[in-house]
Amino acid sequence: MKCKILIFFLFISFTVSAKQIVVCKSCSVKTIKEAIKIAEDGDEVLIKKGVYKEQNIVIDKAISLIGEKGAVIDGNNEGGILIFQTNNFKIKGLKIVNVGLSYTIEYAAIKVIKGNDFIIEDCVMENVFFGILLEKSKRGIIRNNKISSNRKNEASSGNGIHIWSGEEMEVYKNEMFGLRDGIYFEFVKNSLVHDNVSHNNIRYGLHFMFSNNNTYHHNEFRNNGAGVAVMFSKFIIMHHNKFWLNWGAASYGLLLKEIYDAEIYDNLFEQNTIGINAEGSTRINYKNNTFLRNGWAIKISGACYKNVFAKNDFMSNSLDLSYNSNINDNKFDNNYWSEYTGYDLDKNGIGDVPYRPVKLFSYIVNKTPEALVLLRSLFVDIINFSEKVSPVFTPDDLMDNNPLMKRAND
Amino acid sequence: MLKILKYSFYDLMRSRWSYVYFLFYLILGFVLLFLNNDVDKAVITLMNIIIVLTPLIGTIFGVMYYYNSKEFTELLLAQPINRRKIFMGQYFGISISLTLSLVLGLGIPFVFYGLFKSAAIFNFSLLLVVGAFLNFIFVALSYNIALSTENKIKGFGYAILMWLFLAVIYDGVFLISLIIFNSYPLDKFSLAATMFNPIDLSRILILLKLDISALLGYTGAVFRKFFGTNIGMFISMSLLVLWVVFPVLRMNLKLRKKDF
User: Fold this and answer.
1) Cα–Cα–Cα angle for B26, B118, A312, nearest 5°?
2) Where residue A3 falls among pLDDT bands split at 50, 70, 90?
3) pLDDT computed for residue A4 by the predictor
4) What gap in Å lies between CA A238 and CA A236, rounded to an integer?
5) Taking a C-beta distance cutoff of 8 angstroms, is the pair A107, A79 a contact?
6) Helix %, strand %, coil % for chain B, to 5?
7) C-alpha distances in Å from residue B218, one per residue of A244, A252, A257, A296, B46
8) pTM of the shown model
9) How close is the nearest chain A Cα to the Cα of B88, in Å?
């Protein structure tokens, strides 16, 4: 009890003593660095309208950094801009532009080193190298930011939101474009990513590496170099995301590599070169996803065991499924395939003959990629049919025994 | 020439087969849309049909019409009319009437089902353009065969064989050669090989719109340039025009020397 009262008084005293420091061209405090110097824990630094050309501003006090509309910090393409080395801080409404490029140092618009319990919101970052870079941090909220850049290749570009070693982060309603990866999670646990839009990035819209127990949902990934990549991670839940228009030779809606025990449901994959590319991914449940007009809906490249595909809609994809071997340990059941030609005599909504999603042509295209120009040719239809009657090259146990007659997720 | 064109056109329009052909496409269009209710998917199914069937019908109609109207043609040849005009009139008469059956037969059901509101309108019109081209190409090819073969049965046989070759066998040989020469760079070869077959060419033209996401899956730079930009569309369109021009030219050359 005593302790609680003490905390209460402490809190009161903090709020009472907290002061506001205003930064503007005509104020007594003219630069952000000065303001930080005189600020104390709990203060608010209000940055008025104007362009502030400052770099490497180190903030080691628990303050709120609030930008007025039109407040811009310009890094002049030299180094990083804001570096937080503290807990309990907040940054809001700033516009940060022109972060320097380096091939050895990760310059960022906002960098947080070992900071806990913070909020980064309503900021606009343009022409950045890294946008928001969090190192060894916990319990941060990153929301409503807009991060963009215009770099041309992977080596000279950084990530929008890069979290290296973090826990319990929440990233939502951000927009990222023109970066290397929109969002990059490396060694991040128990975090949530939702309602973000990540588009036109050079590499991935969202990238997970060695990050377990995370969830991402209701995000949109469009037109990225290679969609979304989830690698070397466990217990990831992905749902209600939209992956679309990821076109190119190595472009995927979703790339899965060495991932275990994931749940993928209610997502939409539309017009990607490859909807899902799975490699070494095991015990994953794919449910209620819609694959619409992709080149390949799903490409399984090997070492994928005990995956379950159920109640998915495969609609007008050039090729539904591609396997590179004729061994199969995955289960396909109760999916809707728009190419299914069977019948349903007992009218229970389930086709009476099994459907084989792997065609001979997809096997041939795996071996000779140029054969792709023969897609939808009559000859290809004929050889597909003969393979369907007696499978030789494609896994003969790979079939959907209960194909649906109508779409599962309309 | 216009008079003969008009005559051939009306003759065909009155014939039962034009109606059968028209009704076939009409029913096909309605059934497809009725079963699917999805214009996009119907366009894909339609592509498969147009690419196989239009050439076949064009070939058969062309050969049939030539042999059937041979006596009348000979009568016309006795008149002081330019040979070229007689045969060109017949050729365009057949091609235009076939194209009309195709466009009206498929167009009516699609218009009924709200094509103009759908985003598929471009794909659909491309399909019709390709269908029209295939009609013109295959009627010209079959006329060439008929002009070179006096024997009716032989002529029919060659025409069907030509269709079979271009629709099925060509792709088979093509695929096998791709597999055999797997270890060589094949992207230029495979693109060139599609250009030498009007059916493949029209297929690629439609794929450029329908399956572009899959076509971009291949890494080759030539492929990327061809499929990724408008160059592919432009090249295949102009090659289709050449595919009409060359058989028609050959027809005229043949006519000049032919002894009726």
Assistant:
1) 95
2) low
3) 59
4) 6
5) yes
6) 85, 0, 15
7) 18, 13, 21, 12, 26
8) 0.87
9) 32
Tokens in use for B115? Answer: 């094509």
Closest CA relative to residue A142, chosen from A184, A179, A105:
A184
pLDDT for B258 equals 83
CB spacing of B178 vs A371 below 8 angstroms: yes
CA distance A228 to A203: 9
What's the confidence (pLDDT) of residue A128?
Answer: 93
Ranges of each domain in chain B:
2-257
Which residue from A359, A403, A365, A363 is spatially nearest to A385, judged by alpha carbons?
A359
| Distances from the Cα of A79 to the Cα of A1, A65, A76, A102, A120, angstroms | 49, 20, 8, 8, 20
Burial A314-344 (b: 16+ CB within 10 A, else e): bbbbbbbbbbeeeebebebebbbbbebeeee
So where are chain A's domains? 226-410
Q: Which residue of A has its CA nearest to B171?
A: A379
**For position B133, what pLDDT does the model report?**
95
Mean of pLDDT values over A223-233: 90
Which of A250, A318, A382 lies closest to B214 in CB terms? A318
B48 touching A (Cβ < 8 Å): yes
Q: Which residues contact B220 (CB under 8 A, 6 or more apart)?
A: A369, A370, B185, B187
A368, B182: Cβ pair inside 8 Å? Answer: yes
Give A177 to chain B, closest Cα distance, Å: 21
For residues A174 and A151, the answer to whether their CB atoms sit within 8 Å is no
Instruction: Spell out which residues of chain B touch residue A291, defining contact as CB-CB under 8 Å.
Output: none
Which stretch of A175-184, A286-295, A363-372, B206-215 has the lowest confidence by average pLDDT?
A: B206-215
Non-local (6+) Cβ contacts of B207 within 8 A are A375, A376, B215
Judged by CB atoms closer than 8 Å, whether chains meet at A372 and B215 is answered as: yes
Q: Which SS3 state, helix, strand or coil, does residue A261 take?
A: coil
Q: Does B227 have pLDDT greater than 90?
A: no
* pLDDT of residue A212 exceeding 90: yes
Q: Work out how many CB contacts closer than 8 A connect A with B.
A: 103
Residues of A near B (Cβ–Cβ under 8 Å) read: 247-251, 271-274, 293-296, 315-316, 318-319, 338, 364, 367-382
Q: What is the pLDDT of residue A73?
A: 94
- Whole-number Å distance between alpha carbons of A334 and A173: 34
The reported pLDDT for the residue numbered A6 is 52
Residue A73's SS3 state is strand
**Chain B residues within 8 A of A271 when measuring between CB atoms:** 213
Please determine, for residue A389, whether its predicted confidence score (pLDDT) is greater than 90.
no
Distance from the Cα of residue B137 to its chain's centroid: 5
- The string of DSSP codes covering A160-185 is SEEEEEEES-EEES-EEESSS-SEEE
Q: Which of A117-126, B32-41, B104-113 has the lowest mean pLDDT?
A: B32-41
Comparing CA positions, the residue from B39, B28, B50, B32 lying closest to residue B203 is B50
> How many residues does the structure list for chain B?
260
Is the CB of B127 inside 8 Å of chain A's CB atoms?
no
Alpha-helical segments (H) within A250-354? none
Please state, in angstroms and rounded to a whole number, the distance separating the CA atoms of residues A127 and A146: 11
Give the list of residues 6+ apart from residue A293 with CB closer than 8 angstroms, or none: A270, A271, A315, A316, A317, B40, B213
Asked if residue A375 has pLDDT above 80, the reply is yes
- Paired with A390 in beta bridges are none
In one-letter notation, the amino acid at residue A19 is K
Q: Label residue B62 by pLDDT band (50, 70, 90).
A: very high
